[in-house]
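Friendly challenge for the regulars: who can give me the structure tokens for this chain first? No prize, just bragging rights.
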Amino acid sequence: MEKVIEAFTGVTPEGKASLKPARYDAMLTGTGVFLALFMIGHMALVSSILLGKEFMYSVTKFLELSFIFEGGEPLFVTAAAVVVFVVFGIHGALALKKFPTTYSAFMKMRAHVKLMDHGDTTLWFYQVVTGFIMFFTASVHLYVIMSNPADIGPFASSDRIWSDWM
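First reply, four minutes later:
Bragging rights claimed.
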């Protein structure tokens, strides 16, 4: 019963402020940093195509641990994508606490953004909107990677973009 009261009031049975919001914010920051670093690495790996299709293919095979397993094992790409997907889901769930939950809360937030006319407040509003969009688009991308790990590289990726209209 005490946990329910703490969740409802934000105050522990001892009358102290709950540390849960701070812990959630720390977890949100941690998952956000992980995802940001992952995206930097992802963009570096994807941009290897600029050095040639052979180079990107060798990067793909390196990520499949071809230096350990003959020909590489796409299962490692799936495992990495699952880890990123789980962290992405945790980050999204934690970020939902920051979203307005009703239309009137959204309108209040929008009015606040206009009234404050402050760069960080405005950027936070755009971050909520783009984060909501990205949650769905990145989930689809991660699903494609998890379900087709052998189709990563210059040849299969370009075919997927052309043939599947991606």
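The mean pLDDT is 85. The chain has seven helices and no strands. Your move, everyone else.
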